[in-house]
Design brief:
Blueprint lengths: L5 H11 L2 H21 L3 H10 L8 H10 L16 H13 L4 H8 L10 H12 L8 H7 L4 H18 L6 H12 L3
Helix pairs in contact: 2-3, 2-7, 3-6, 3-7, 5-6, 6-7, 7-9, 8-9, 9-10
This protein binds adenosine-5'-diphosphate.
Pfam families: HD
Catalytic activity: P(1),P(4)-bis(5'-adenosyl) tetraphosphate + H2O = 2 ADP + 2 H(+)
Protein name: bis(5'-nucleosyl)-tetraphosphatase (symmetrical)
Length: 191
C-alpha cells in the first residue's frame, strides 16, 4: 500500500482553508487523538481522518455538486438535497485520489462526519464527536455535548445530533435524513 501523503495534505489544507477553519481542524485533530486514546480507537487513524474531514468545507454548493458529477461519485439522492453535506464524501474522494488514504474506515468516518449514519463505528464516533466539541467550538448546547461524553462516545454523538436536528428545525433549514437515521440507530442501541 502506498504511503499516505500527510505532509502534502497539511500544506494544501493550509493554503485552501481560512485561518479560522484551519484552527478548527487542528482542534479536531487534537481532540480526535485524545478521544481515540480514551476509547480504545487507533489514534493515528483518528488523526488522519481529522486532518482530511473539512478539506472541501469552504467550497461552494456548485463546486461540490460539480465535483460529484465529474467524478461520478454515486450517492443516494438524499445527499443532494443538502449540497453542503457533500463536503464529507468529496473530502473522502480527494483523500483517496490525491493523498493515498485508502483505509475505508478512515474514508467512511470522513464521508459521514457531518451527518453521522446508522451503525456508526467507534472511529466514526470519534471524528463526529471531536468535530462537535473541539476547544474552539462555542455554540449553544456545546457544553451538553461535552458533558454527555462522561456516558460514552455514543451518548455524546446522540446529544450532538439532538442539538443539530433541533437547531435545523428551529431555524427552518433543510435536514439531511442521514442524521435522523443515525440518531434512530443510536436509540436502538439503547443510547
Ligand atoms: N443533517 C444535517 N442536515 C443539514 N444540515 C446539517 C446537518 N448536520 C449539520 N448540518 C449543518 O452543516 C453545517 C456544518 O456542520 P458542522 O457540524 O459545522 O460540520 P463541519 O465541521 O463539517 O463544518 C452546519 O451549518 C450545520 O448546521
Amino acid at each position: 500500500m502506498a504511503e499516505i501523503k500527510l505532509d502534502r495534505l497539511l500544506q494544501d489544507l493550509r493554503r485552501q482553508l481560512s485561518d479560522v477553519r484551519f484552527r478548527h481542524v487542528e482542534g479536531v485533530v487534537q481532540t480526535a487523538r485524545d478521544l481515540a486514546d480514551r476509547f480504545g480507537v487507533c489514534p493515528s487513524k483518528a488523526e488522519v481522518a481529522a486532518w482530511l474531514h473539512d478539506f472541501a468545507r469552504e467550497w461552494s454548493k456548485d463546486r461540490l455538486l460539480r465535483y460529484v458529477k465529474e467524478h461520478a461519485i454515486s450517492l443516494p439522492d438524499e445527499w443532494l438535497t443538502v449540497p453542503l453535506l457533500l463536503h464529507g464524501p468529496v473530502a473522502a474522494h480527494i483523500g483517496k485520489q490525491t493523498y493515498q488514504i485508502e483505509d475505508e474506515e478512515i474514508l467512511d468516518a470522513v464521508r459521514y462526519h457531518t451527518t453521522g449514519r446508522p451503525n456508526m463505528t467507534d472511529l466514526d464516533l470519534v471524528l463526529f464527536v471531536a468535530d462537535a466539541i473541539e476547544p474552539n467550538r462555542s455554540y449553544p448546547g456545546v457544553e451538553a455535548v461535552r458533558a454527555a461524553l462522561t456516558d460514552g462516545l455514543a451518548n455524546a454523538a446522540r446529544a450532538s445530533l439532538d442539538n443539530t436536528i433541533t437547531y435545523l428545525i428551529a431555524t427552518g433549514r433543510p435536514l439531511g435524513l442521514l442524521a435522523v437515521a443515525a440518531r434512530n440507530s443510536l436509540l436502538e442501541r439503547g443510547v
